[in-house]
């Protein structure tokens, strides 16, 4: 593989308001090992390690996994790689919340029992004595939030976890976490991992406003919407292979709504977004994937963008967005405008009436 010039390697950002520095692109490990849902494009251990090594050559230090990815297989693969590395040079993030053993009613959720067991299992698979970032994978309506937050606080105080974050939350849920953590004088959350792309901007309405007001760094996942934003699909031609074909509306697969579905992607708005991406990419000598990722990297709330790759050339292409160039203000505005989502009441009137009321001394405002 070609050597990577220093000026094109990842830059380092603070993760939210913490003192932790992470590469502006994070390597997502969901493609490592056989996936629970049987999705195509999964990597074996050798292939996964090759991708991680190339990511490190690009200056990446941030790897994101979860206990549910392959029900432990992804963490195991990352852990086997980590044993040959200088541990302190890397930021390892994982998650807990989802059912690991469906036959065990206590092996799910954000209870003290399940979180404690989850971190012990994750540390064993990752072959390390601490994780840098532990994220709750989503909200748990079955557990009092006080129990969850006090348990997470104990895990940080014990040294098994360094920082706390969340994923897949609504605005009110994240604000509740922020407020209760302050009230109980507990370790604050520093990050929110959320689906975010030029196609999926709904989190700008509430969750990212909470992030902006409270110093919580955003970690976008699915920045290319299962490859749709690479421009490799054609209007009116349903995919026949890859993840988008796998995630078609098949009731037998019981795919979550968060997984991309072709009928929801094949819209006039989305094809207009692709046209704008293609025009900018061709003018700048970049790929559409790089422009899509760069748009995210230049959003003020974003600390690091999570990418997934199952091929080295795919990784290299995505990493080409990391550094050495930026989108102009006009190009950002063009993408913002063409991808602007429908804004429901009361957001429409609140945002419209405050566009001329932006006060740099007041942190509240639009993302």
Instruction: Tell me the name of the CATH class.
Output: Alpha Beta
Strand content: 5-15%
Q: What's the order of the H and E elements? A: EEEHEHEHEHEHEHEHHHHEHHH
What number is the mean pLDDT?
A: 93
Radius of gyration: 20 Å
What coarse outline follows from CA principal-axis ratios?
A: globular
Distance between the termini: 38 Å
Summarize the structure in words.
The protein is of the alpha/beta class. The protein has one domain: TIM Barrel (Alpha-Beta Barrel), CATH 3.20.20. Helix content is 37%, strand content 13%. The chain contains 13 helices and ten strands. It has helices spanning 45-57, 73-82, 112-126, 145-157, 171-183, 207-214, 242-246, 262-265, 268-284, 288-297, 312-319, 329-338, 347-354; strands at 12-14, 21-23, 25-28, 62-64, 91-96, 131-136, 161-167, 189-195, 217-221, 305-307. The chain has an eight-stranded parallel beta sheet with strand order 9-8-7-6-5-4-3-10. It has a two-stranded antiparallel ribbon with strand order 1-2. A hairpin with a 6-residue loop joins strand 1 and strand 2 (21-23). Helix 9 (268-284) crosses helix 10. The protein is globular and about 50 Å long. The mean pLDDT is 93. It comes from Littorina saxatilis. One of its GO terms (cellular component) is cytosol. Keywords: Oxidoreductase. This is NADP-dependent oxidoreductase domain-containing protein. Belongs to the aldo/keto reductase family. Aldo/keto reductase 2 subfamily.
């Amino acid at each position: 593989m070609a050597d990577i010039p220093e000026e094109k390697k990842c830059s380092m950002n603070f993760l939210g308001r913490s003192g932790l520095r992470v590469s502006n692109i994070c390597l997502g490990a969901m493609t490592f090992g056989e996936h629970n849902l049987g999705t195509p494009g999964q990597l074996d251990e050798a292939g996964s390690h090759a991708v991680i090594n190339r990511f490190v050559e690009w200056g990446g230090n941030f790897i994101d996994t979860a206990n549910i990815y392959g029900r432990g297989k992804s963490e195991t693969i990352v852990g086997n790689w980590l044993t040959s590395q200088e541990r302190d040079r890397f930021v390892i993030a994982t998650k807990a919340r989802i059912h690991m053993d469906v036959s065990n009613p206590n092996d799910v959720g954000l209870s003290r029992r399940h979180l404690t067991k989850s971190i012990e299992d994750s540390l064993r698979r990752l072959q390390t004595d601490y994780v840098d970032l532990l994220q709750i994978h989503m909200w748990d309506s079955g557990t009092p939030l006080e129990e969850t937050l006090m348990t997470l606080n104990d895990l940080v105080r014990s040294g098994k976890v360094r920082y706390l974050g969340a994923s897949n939350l609504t605005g009110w849920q994240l604000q509740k976490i922020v407020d209760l953590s302050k009230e109980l004088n507990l370790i604050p959350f520093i990050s929110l991992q959320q689906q975010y792309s030029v196609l999926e901007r709904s989190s700008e309405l509430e969750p990212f406003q909470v992030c902006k007001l409270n110093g919580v760094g955003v970690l976008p996942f699915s920045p290319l919407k299962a490859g749709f934003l690479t421009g490799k699909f054609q209007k009116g031609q349903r995919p026949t292979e890859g993840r988008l074909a796998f995630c078609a509306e098949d009731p037998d697969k019981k795919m979550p709504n968060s997984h991309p579905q072709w009928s929801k992607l094949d819209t006039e708005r989305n094809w207009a977004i692709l046209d704008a991406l293609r025009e900018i990419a061709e003018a700048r000598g970049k790929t559409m994937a790089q422009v899509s990722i760069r748009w995210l990297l230049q959003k003020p709330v974003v600390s690091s963008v999570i990418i997934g790759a199952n091929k080295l050339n795919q990784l290299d292409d995505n990493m080409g967005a990391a550094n050495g160039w930026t989108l102009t203000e006009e190009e950002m505005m063009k993408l913002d405008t063409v991808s602007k989502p429908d804004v429901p009441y009361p957001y429409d009137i609140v945002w419209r009436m405050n566009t001329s009321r932006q006060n740099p001394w007041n942190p509240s405002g639009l993302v």
